[in-house]
Amino acid sequence: MNVTAEYMGIDNDCQFFRDIPEYLFAKIERSVYNKRKVKLFFSIEFIRTQLFNKFTEFENYYVVDRMPLEIVKLSRSGRSKACKEYFYSAPNRGCCASQNIYYYGYKIHAVCSINSVFKSFDISKASVHDIH
Fold first, then answer.
1. Whole-model pTM?
2. Are 94 and 103 in contact (CB under 8 A)?
3. What is the enclosing helix (H) or strand (E) of 109?
4. Distance of CA 27 to the CA centre of its chain
5. pLDDT: which is higher, 67 or 76
6. Which residues have CB under 8 Å from 102's CB, separation 6+?
7. Which DSSP string corresponds to 110-126?
């Protein structure tokens, strides 16, 4: 069901449960669905990788881009405890020159084919330079 939702362009579980006919979800609650989806992450990632390889078998060029992932506003960054369990993975302050903003959080880096099929993505601290 998750792969179907992604194919339909639905990234919100509430929207997905509204759009899909009710008889398909007669036996499952949304919280159970989400728990199962989390447990199946590696299987879903394997399927996504296999589909990518089939769709982009003859592609030679890829696009790499990044975007800011703001956790909290800068004014609340000193009080925020989100994701600070370990130093190496803690969010920090960064700048996005293209959007002319300063933010507190991470950067998402994505590799995409010319036909808009995502190959991979990664998250880094906001202060890490794009070259690295």
1. 0.60
2. yes
3. strand 101-113
4. 28
5. 67
6. 74, 93, 94, 95, 96
7. EEEETTS-EEEEEEEET
